């Protein structure tokens, strides 16, 4: 059967194609143009909705036309669907009916569909407040948007995050979008909303912490009942409740109201939102359409609004109306508070009442945010940094995924990009030099070798010259650093193993890194010129690590080389190309704007910011406007590894680029923007996002995190990196750790172990694999602790094995208890002692360090000896006033409840804080 086109159906229904398109869009159907076809089930449903509407609901139409709307333009939104109480007070009051692009004008057309059961109105996040004075028929509570994302007017390509509706037929059911398990389907459960979502049951809200299940929630419910009024009913014990559709509408009609009629305007997401927004909240007696008169409705709304502001646990938080709040992964309550403009402390309280405790700055998971958002009337979308960046680029009309797809037709082979890794002194640097010297082109043209971080050599492969790009930073530091940043530039790893030595710790490390990144390995068995060289031993050893030589029946190519004598280089390059051809499909579209990665960057006194960029796709030209991470600029000049000027760089070509306004980081990706301004704007936005991310809570894993995640059932494997002072200790520790058995549910995995200080590399690896680093009798190398802190990686220091075992075991059992530590707060020197009958001896003091706080624990020190411990700052005065704290440099009067005080004594105070165990 031929599919109907939009204009045909519109004609049939007596409306314009534009209206129909808008209507379809509102329903989440992305239909492009009047000439687009519509799937049969949709047609059926639209006919039902729009066709029937006129006859079915004349009253509504009448009401609508007679309604003195504040905004009478036909464009102005359709009778607001949102009767819902969900809107914030302010919004409801202040926002006039907004003009809603994309909403078909009902106008005179009779085509207002009856509220349609089961119309999930899948995607409109933006809730629309009821227009003041716009007496709506009790239209549905907002159906829950299945997706937080695109507004109807934003024709974003790509699947909606909410996921496809089943069968592409949103109208299919008479019930509201049944989702498996009654849950919110693929989309993260949004608490709030249930209302109107017609989900019938909210039971399946997935795994997010359900406040109702949490301790204290019962009392919360009770406590807040008076405040929340109507909504309360809905929550009905949150499992099934929370106002989610079914709860309040007597059974069969869930969803009935949520579809505010086709032309009734988009059922905006969440609007139903606030708890209690469901019809029942208004005392509609559960009748799905209990259409009340205007007055009653207003009264109800007012009532609701009064109830909805002051709320939880005594804190007053302006309620959202289902609007989307986007927060970064790992964000904290403070971040969320910032977005919705409330005091973080208030959110701490609300969360507490939801049964969860967190500090304002602690990083929270998605589920917790969603629960909280639901509670407050916001639809929370947690976005990863990658998504965030993707969206940022999309806002500049740059769609990397689409580019990739469109590249598919113009792919050309590109050279492999190779990284050389291996143990210290096994010859990585020498090998890179030797390979470089094989470059036929270089030897022809001369040029002065420049170490720019990467170079390309041309080799003769079966009579054809082929290029291979080498990352010129030996070792896996650069490799993991980039990987930690989500960048993968290496196609193939050459593992260098000295034939006179054998497999060493860093050899294993390199294997781990390459394998973790899914990068094929070619083994260069080096130093075969040495007498004691035993290449076969290397082959045998590496077999144990899963690298089985081809000659042993495996699939890894081993090449014997002597970097020193520059022997075996052609064979090695040959092996690289063969491996690339066999295992990888290396291609890119050279005929487009360049994208790639910065692999090295520095500030040169004379030349400014200099970055070596590896082109991954397209061609980079001198003059291009580029943005690299949060740096930008125009390519002023480019040089190759021989210091020669180049005008353009094709895929896999590394070039040194001048012209950036600031120094990017290694691993930052770059792209060519349409103009300088765009490049700058993207860079600025990224810089802002970075700053935010830095402010946001740390992301790594700590044993305490692990504990929590374990409780939440999120993890079952604790990844560890063990570093120690001697290999015996490391082995002993690993052995003992692996013997810890806390049952099958929790596994321990040592992803890396080694002797020596904790290095940047360890931290990078821990970042990537969410591992905790166990440092036994070793400390971090310089600046590594800083890196660990910034990456949120926990390094646990131990000097006694059993302490480490104890901690890990506790963590694995999910029983890690916090430990407390005394932290010095401040100290004051007694300058004069005042006797006071009333207060005892008062120490006239000056605060020498930190802050002295009333109530703090204190000790009295005389001549370096603690005279009395466990005292308390009983009173604290500045002049005549009682104060709670006095800062460094200020004088104050202190009573300690201890008589023997003298001039010159020092009062030290401390506080007890929870501390990570070590
Ligand atoms: N005999 C012999 N010596 C070699 C060979 N390759 C490297 N060497 C020597 O081994 C030592 C280490 O070589 P490098 O290239 O610096 O080793 P590396 O792996 O880069 O070392 P790090 O940079 O410290 O990690 C140097 O003294 C080299 O001269 C070789 O093929 N044969």
TrEMBL record:
Region feature Disordered, mapped onto this chain: 35-317
UniProt key word Transcription: no
Segments of skewed composition (Pro residues): 103-164
Domain of life where this protein originates: Bacteria
Protein name per the record: Translation initiation factor IF-2
UniProt source species: Scrofimicrobium canadense
GO cellular component: cytosol
Feature: compositional bias, Gly residues: 179-206, 228-254
Biased segments, Low complexity type: 67-90, 166-178, 207-217
Keyword set includes Cytoplasm: yes
